[in-house]
Each structure stands twice: as C-alpha cells, then as structure tokens.
Amino acid sequence: MRKSKIKENKYDSIKFKTKSYNKILKNLDFELTGSQQLSLREIVDDFISENPMNRMIQGDVGCGKTIVSILASSIVVDNDYQVGIMAPTDLLSKQLYKNFKSHFEAIGIKCSLLVGSLKPKDKDKVLKDIKLGKSNIIIGTHALFQKDVQFHNLGFVVIDEQHRFGVNQRQKLLSKSTNPNLMAMTATPIPRTLAITYNGDMDLSIIDELPKNRPDIHTSFIEKDNLSTAFNFIREKVESGGQTIIVYPLINESEKQDLSAAVESYEYLSNSIFPDLNVGLMHGQLEDENKNNEMQKFMEGDIDILVSTTVVEVGIDNPNVNVMLINNSERFGLSQLHQLRGRVGRGSLESYCLLCSDSESPKTKERLSIIVNSRNGFEIADEDLKLRGPGEFFGEKQSGFVKFKIADLITDGPIIRDARMNAFEIIKNDANLTHNNHINIKQKFDDEYLQLFLKTTVN
Fold this sequence. Notes:
The protein is built from 16 helices and 13 strands. It has about 450 residues and is α/β, with parallel strands linked by helices. Helix 3 packs parallel to helix 4, helix 8 packs parallel to helix 15 and helix 12 (about 335-340) crosses helix 14 (about 375-395). The longest helix is centred in the middle third of the chain and has 18 residues, at about 255-275.
C-alpha cells in the first residue's frame, strides 16, 4: 500500500541528459559491469517517469555501488537539481565526499561536505552555498536534515548504508526536496527473498558482479597456536608496502571484557610483536575526534597495522590494505565476516584474509569453510540464514519481522515472491482494500481472525 501511495504522486521527470555522465564515463579507468549498467538503466527509467524514484541498490562488498550513484547524480545535476548524499558516520561521509569530488570537480561541478565536526565558520559557508545553489552535490551525515539546512533545489537523495537510518530520518531529508527521488544503497548481503519482503515498498536493483580489475582475496583458516606465523606474514607484507587490519570481536560496545581484550592486544602487539612498526587502535568508545584522527593517519599510511573492533566493518576504503586478521572468527556471522573481508582487496595489491579460531567444533569449521570457499555475498547470506536461522541472522533487536508463523524464509522463497506479486495485484485492483460493498477487507480479516483465535483458545 505504501508503494502504491508513492506511485500516486506525480513530479517533473528528470530527463536523461548525458553531458556530465559521458564526461565521467570517459574518465573512468575501468569498464562498468553488466550489473552496474542494468542498475543504471533502471535508475534512468525511474528518472524519466513522472513518479518519484523509491529504489534500493543492493550490492556485494566492493561491487561498485558508489560509481553507480555518481553517474546517477550527474544526470540529476544536468537537470539543474541538487543531490544530497547521506551516510551514517563522519568517516564514511568524508570518504564519499573524496570519491564524488574526484569525479565531479574535474568537470566543473561543485561538491560540499556537511558533517558535525565542521568548524562554525566552515559550516556557515557550506550552508550558504547550499541555500544559494552554488553547491550541486552535498555529502553529509544526519546534519543534512537539520532545520538550518535549506536546499536551493534538491531533486535526488542518496542514502548509503540505509539500514543505519530510521524511516523518519530518511523522510526528514526527503521533505526538503522539491522532487523527492530516493535511492538507498546497502552492502549488507540480505538473502534475496528477505530483501523483497523487508524492502517491499521499494524497487530493487541488485549488483551481483565484482569489477574485473579487483584482485582475488585469498582467505584461509588458522588456529590460535599458529598466530606467530600469521604475525610473520603480516610483517612481511607491511615491509613490502602494504597495511594490515587486525580485528577483535567486540560485538556489543557494552562488552567490557572484549574491549579490554582488544586494548590489551593492541598494547601487546605494539610493544612486543611489532615494536618497530606503527600500530594504531580503533574502537567505538574512542572520542569522535580521536577516532577520526586515527583513521586519517591510517588512510594516509602513517599507521602500518590497525588493531580494531568491528567499527571497521563499514566505510574503510583504503586501497593499500592487503591483509586482514580476524580473531575469534567463530563469534561472527558469515555475513559479517564477509563484510569485514571487504575492507581488503580494494586496490591492486594481492590480498589476504586470515580467519583465526581455537574452536574444535566441526560445525564451526564447516561454517568458516563457506567463507574460505566463496566470495559471493548473496550465497554466503543464504548459507548464514540456513545455519543460524532468521533470529540470529538479524540479531535480537531486528528479529521480530522475520518470525513468520507459517512461512519458512529458507525454503519458501518461490511462494513468498508469488504472494508479493499477488499482493501488488490486489492493491492495484483495490487500493484501499475495500470490497464492492465498501467493507474494509483488512478490518474484516482482523475481526474474523480474532473470533477464530478466541474460539481456538476456548477450545
């Protein structure tokens, strides 16, 4: 019903103007994959219709969602609209800004960054440029939908890692738009059946190919007893010019014991194992300023080895990182391991992911072998769902919406998709769910279901 309501709204179409699009395309040093090209065709079809876009781009780690959003944004800018790109953290916003700026400022299109850490003077300048329309593309965090942000002519909203934002937060930003086209992006590999049910009010584009220029990531399993071998390997790769991330499993920031383990390991590694190398520390309880400084040093190559909790799971795009060591890997879901692994292999260096565990469980070893043998995030997500079930797959807080009484997400994919198609057909024929005699079908169903429930309970 939400989707049909969105489609009822009519706005000016965005014409497929290709001046900036072709310039950016010409400057790329790689070819778009078939999946990227298909997603762009679907995006253009949305633009040229009179209905506002409401599309989700779901793509595997490193599949090239950002360049798709850059090319889509170029079409919008050529139609004299502004583009707002919202990301969940300062770090991710800054990286997106750097990426967008490198493509757009080369062809004379201005990009601006709006994050909470800006100095008041710099923030005032950015706000003025946005209001006057001097900034064509504005990248930022939650700061984008604050009251003091007035867009000149916002026509396209892109939300990265959209699951990190609530519906109301997305709506606040869209409400600032004169032509509210929304494109959300996620690298979280949700199984396809789940994606079309959970994001049922959105059109879905899937990028399931990796760019041809991406190197392979060699993934292997090591036992804790062999950590010294792993440390020697890390040293060898650092001395050859690469960088390393060593991850500890702080799943929840309140797990003080885990945090202590990460901090103690950092001290041990920096003092005893790699005293001659630059070792950094990153975790969620660091002050934002310290976190940003540490990440800046890592991105600029001043830190050789970054010891971190899972805060590195999303957003680090450092092409020089070619080794990742994940400790206690049995404590992670397969999808999360895949997300973490996606932080390496983003440049031209041959890359490695080492999964360390001291678990003797055959089931654990079987589970980790899935990551060792596959780089396909969708396959891995499907296996993860089979092994752990929907509750664990999404974590306790998010498990409610997948606990169906009858349907099984693992085996009932075809019938769930069929039910979805039928649901759209019903709404198409009767948008308010009223029958010929104007009885509300939903109310009728609720009443009858309640009577049946009471009868069953009494019996």
